[in-house]
Amino acid sequence: MTAVIETQALGKRYGHVTALTDCTLSIPEGRVVGLVGPNGAGKSTLLGLVCGLIAPSAGSIAVLGNPPAASAAQLARVGFVAQDAPIYGSLTVADHLRLGARLNPRWDAALAERRIRQRNLDPRQKAGRLSGGQRAQLALTIAAAKRADLLILDEPVAALDPLARRAFLQDLLDFVGELGVSVVLSSHLLGDLERVCDHLIVLASARVQLSGDVAQLLGEHQRLTGTLPGFDRLPAGTEIIHAEQNTMVVRTTTPIDGADRVDLEDLVLAYLTRAAGFDGAPMLAEAQR
């Protein structure tokens, strides 16, 4: 299957600060990818590299089979919505659609106009007077009407209320179904990611901690709860991701009696906690005595 994003040992430095290092990914087409990590983990840097807004300091990256921003044709294949849903406050909704049509050779005017009607956006309304949810919907409409092959969304729902977030994410799924577009969605809101994403990337400390299809990753992880002396009898090859008190999250393809399934939040928090330096190693050593 063709990879929409392929990186090898990708890195980015700003002076003496490492924003991203040794990032190797292969993201298949047709996925809705959840990109998650704490502030400063490198999420925006990775998205900037994918969009061609910044150049790498090390390694390589291909987007849709080509270097990012290699040509006008390549730029037309990637849509981007930043966290603040950037729009021009002095322009009307209709002005934004006309601007989109002038700047994007693959512009789908019918799709844009249909979306504006469905979301009850007044074409005469100036964008600066729209609500946060309406601005996000306008930004998503413009990105979708660009008819890109890849949509990059950097925290697009961070400032929205729960109802506006739900509407935005449902529309995103509708676009995926209608247009066959691949999506990378950066968010701190794990519940939202669990609703819409089928592929996951966890970034922390400027490194990829975990990457893969969500269903497969959830199937490979289990949560054990009990007394620590029982934790030393794990199947061969089991990787302990995180342990605290009497709970442990492990990675193994072998079913463990009494273990529970993990959800996306369990999975992400286990890897983020390990990356922060709390890997449960002292507890494991105690359990194996």
Radius of gyration: 21 Å
Strand content: 25-35%
What is the first-to-last residue Cα distance? Answer: 47 Å
Shape assignment: globular
Under CATH at level 1, the class of the largest domain stands as Alpha Beta
As a percent range, the share of helical residues equals: 25-40%
**CATH homologous superfamily designation of the largest domain:** P-loop containing nucleotide triphosphate hydrolases
Count structural domains.
2
List the helices and strands and how they pair.
Blueprint (H helix, E strand, L loop, with lengths): L2 E12 L2 E12 L3 E5 L6 H9 L6 E6 L8 H5 L1 E4 L11 H11 L5 H10 L13 H14 L4 E5 L7 H18 L2 E5 L3 H7 L2 E6 L2 E7 H6 L1 E5 L13 E6 L2 E5 L8 E2 L2 H12 L5 H7 L2
Parallel strand pairs: 3-7, 3-8, 5-6, 6-7
Antiparallel strand pairs: 1-2, 1-4, 8-9, 10-12, 10-13, 11-12
Structural features, described:
With 289 residues, the protein is α/β, with parallel strands linked by helices. The protein has two domains: 3-213, 3-Layer(aba) Sandwich (Rossmann fold), CATH 3.40.50; 220-287, no CATH class. The chain has ten helices and 13 strands. Strand 11 and strand 12 form a beta hairpin. Helix 4 (109-118) packs antiparallel against helix 5 (132-145) and helix 5 (132-145) runs parallel beside helix 6 (162-179). GO terms for molecular function: ATP binding. This is ABC transporter ATP-binding protein. Residues 5-230 form the ABC transporter domain.
